[in-house]
Amino acid sequence: MTSSVLLDLAVIALLATAFWAMPALTRPTLPFGVRVPAARIAEPAIVRAHHRYARGVLVAGTLTFVLVAFASAGLRWESAAAFATPVLAAACCGLGCLAHRTVAAAKRSGDWYSGTRQAVATDTSLRTDPVRPQWIFLVPAAILFGITAAIGAWRYGELPATLPTPNGVIVDVARRSETTVGHAFATVIAQLLITVLVGLLGIALPRARPELDAAQPAASAARYRVYLAGVLRLLFGTAGCVTASLLVASLEVWEIVPATTGVTVVSYLPLAVALVAWVAFTFRVGDAGHRLPSEEEDSSRVQRDDDRYWHLAGQVYVNRGDPALLVHRRAGVAWTLNLGHPISWAILAALAAVVALAGFGVIELPSRGR
């Protein structure tokens, strides 16, 4: 098998592993995006949902891996890989939705919140004394962006008056300058956008509504501080890794280094480092910091049942009565927009406009080809 085939098979295996491990990394009181009291986390319905989901993901991942491996021998590989990855992701998401419905149905039929004391915890110190981002971790991304831009300016400042095309025809650079330079500097623009976006997230996330547990309000607030500080450091470090990968890709596009398998592997190494760091952090700290140690006694209260505001298996949040713009998702180290907030729709409209411009070719996307 070629290196590209092995790389795409590795992506399929990694995707299946991520979906398989996701339920184990989420908070025990949020199985498959359903809010349940701590006393109910070992309910048979929840255990069965976990087992069925895990088996389904393993079967889907194995079948996809095997079918794509065999298909690569008789089909054009790019077509097989491009088709298999989204199908596997959709299948795993479907299994998650089925598990969500199973747990939600058991919760309703068993009336799990009957007799509980529901509450909501808040910590005003997270507003008056928020977690302060360590901006020093974002400096490497800015430096790498500057280096890449400087190399690109040097490379295109040294272009001859004419350039040979792949078919041997000599063309005037002036006729191709706009398209050529715009395409080549797509990686530099991507570096800038990533650095700016991560910087904006560094400002926004400390101001997002904290995820606290009414059963242990003080301990959960302390854990959330540690968790948020770690997320911000990793986010800034990931920006540096992505810009490093784009720097290598730029050198390939500009033909400063040859587009060999070794160079391609080197370009992906920073992304692999970032991925390993995120996985290690998630296993150690947990979703919203729930794996961190706690010495606070249980308050005998349970977190308020707010399932009515969450949709699509706990991935979409809509609450017009909540002033928060960003809220922590119920699964994964991630935040999501409150679609009940009008600013959320303005942000989504801006993103849709960018996607549309990229689709029509107005905005150049990074590519390894010329």
Which terms summarize this structure?
370 residues, mainly alpha, two-stranded parallel sheet, 10 helices, 5% strand, globular
What report would you give on this structure?
The strands form 4 sheets. Strands 1-4 form a two-stranded parallel sheet. A two-stranded antiparallel sheet has the order 2-3. A two-stranded antiparallel sheet has the order 5-6. By secondary structure, the chain is mainly alpha-helical. Mean pLDDT is 84; it is low at 161-179. The protein has helices spanning 3-25, 44-74, 77-110, 125-128, 139-157, 173-184, 186-204, 217-253, 261-285, 342-359, and strands at residues 118-119, 162-164, 170-172, 302-303, 310-311, 316-317, 326-328, 335-337. The chain is built from 10 helices and 8 strands. A hairpin with a 4-residue loop joins strand 5 (310-311) and strand 6. It is 60% helix and 5% strand.
Largest sheet: 2 strands, parallel
Low-confidence regions: 161-179
Average predicted local confidence, pLDDT: 84
Strand content: 5-15%
How many helices? The count is: 10
**Global Rg:** 24 Å
3D shape: globular
How do the helices and strands line up, and which of them pair or pack?
Elements: H1 3-25, H2 44-74, H3 77-110, E1 118-119, H4 125-128, H5 139-157, E2 162-164, E3 170-172, H6 173-184, H7 186-204, H8 217-253, H9 261-285, E4 302-303, E5 310-311, E6 316-317, E7 326-328, E8 335-337, H10 342-359
Parallel strand pairs: 1-4
Antiparallel strand pairs: 2-3, 5-6, 7-8
Helix pairs in contact: 1-2, 1-3, 2-3, 5-7, 5-8, 7-8, 8-9
